[in-house]
Amino acid sequence: MSHDASSFGPEFALIQDSVKKANAQISLYRIAFGQAASESSVSGIEIGRALNDCYGEGRIRVRQNLPTQIDRRSAKAALLGLMCLERALPRGGDIRLTFQEDRWTLHATGDIRSLSFEAITAADPADVQNSLFPIAVKAAGRTLSVTKGDRETTINF
């Protein structure tokens, strides 16, 4: 006999949603902060599903257009870049993550605070992705470019 979340009440549904989001975050963190062998790839479908589960109903809305298979090194860089943009949007906003013609574009709109990719010295440990992002882009064999506006930022690599 199986039950759906609604048969147990709203508290159980909240717990299920929290577990689903936590599992999605762990999946994304494993790619972003894990080892990335040069020959390995990851499923764009699985990354897209994890992004939907993680950002589905939060203050940050993430839209993505991903291929079915992605080089693990470039996926690592893309997720670190996404985390940088998320941290730069404390009041929420939109992030579009696309991979076209062998090029990543991360476009954020909203009230964007400063975004720096300098090495961490005495910075907040919550910003570690900002230091790791340019290293990951270089390890993926790509060149980073950032365009900043008042309410939008675009990262290409």
TrEMBL record:
<dbReference type="InterPro" id="IPR036890">
    <property type="entry name" value="HATPase_C_sf"/>
</dbReference>
<protein>
    <recommendedName>
        <fullName>Histidine phosphotransferase ChpT C-terminal domain-containing protein</fullName>
    </recommendedName>
</protein>
<dbReference type="Pfam" id="PF10090">
    <property type="entry name" value="HPTransfase"/>
</dbReference>
<dbReference type="InterPro" id="IPR018762">
    <property type="entry name" value="ChpT_C"/>
</dbReference>
<feature type="domain" description="Histidine phosphotransferase ChpT C-terminal">
    <location>
        <begin position="46"/>
        <end position="151"/>
    </location>
</feature>
